[in-house]
Amino acid sequence: MDLTLNTRSEADRTVLEVAGEVDVYTGPTLRDRISDLLDSGAHDLVVDLGKVDFIDSTGLGVLVGALNRAKELGGSLQLVCAQERVLKLLRITGLDQVFTVRASLAEVSDEAAQEGEATEADAKAEGSAEAGQTADGSSESS
After folding, report:
1. Domain 3-104 fold
2. What's the whole-model pTM score?
């Protein structure tokens, strides 16, 4: 079976949808696409494995290498997968502890929204503290 790769932007992340088989023959194609994305500045990647029929050790190695490269660039790489056979392979290899794995793109989007809200709240608290106010808005006296 062939490998199909589709890329799109969602919020501040790049989503790479992978379909087909990721094995010794198609792994280099996936590696090259991820490398191109990272080189072009897409440092926060989501790899959607929802349509992957099969993945072998070569495919897993490509994903681990991509994660390491994204981290080196100050970015991230998350996996989206709800297929039990792929999830089982991630669990058996311990890679479920290495990758952030979400069941759907909606979960990734929800997480991004929560991170954005937390960052905004932290920035407001920091700004208030710099202005001599506590996080609740009251003034501090010295």
Report:
1. Transcription Regulator spoIIAA (3.30.750)
2. 0.76
